[in-house]
Amino acid sequence: xxMDIAVFATVFTSMTALFTAFxxxxxxxxxxxxxxxxxxxxYLNRLWSILDSLKDSDDSQHKNIYYEYIMFCxxxxxxxxxxxxxDNTWKFWxxxxxxFILEKESDKDxxxxxxxxxxxxxxxYKYYTNMMDKSNDRKFDPLLSPIRPEIANKRHKYIIFRWFxxx
Length: 167
What we know:
- The structure is a single chain.
- The protein is mainly α.
- The protein has helices at residues 2-56, 62-81, 87-104, 108-118, 123-133, 159-164.
- The longest helix is centred in the N-terminal third of the chain and has 55 residues, at 2-56.
- The termini are far apart.
- The mean pLDDT is 81.
């Protein structure tokens, strides 16, 4: 009889420890998801600020606002490459970036801003050209196909690590 109680106690303790570890993993993931959402919220506010500036400005300011938007798009691509943007958010942001840029392509102020940006030949320029070269590719994702492989987090290519990171 004592043996049965000892076995039961061991099994119960093991199950409790396993359950506690599972709850801790879920809390860790939840905190990562919340961290990602808070970060994305900052960028969403920045986007709205840029779009409001575009709407409220006169034509002479559009070139500078378009330039700011192009830089903003490059920041988003870099953040995705660094595993800071979630999968769901990236689906919307990447689609919206391409649609906006393709819609404004014929605007002279946008072309001027793009020419100024293109003359910089910085790392951000690589992000922009990579996105536009793959504009018809719905699968463009710098997290999975990094533009700068040396900084990309390789472990996020695996679904289990992405899940734990809240992506």
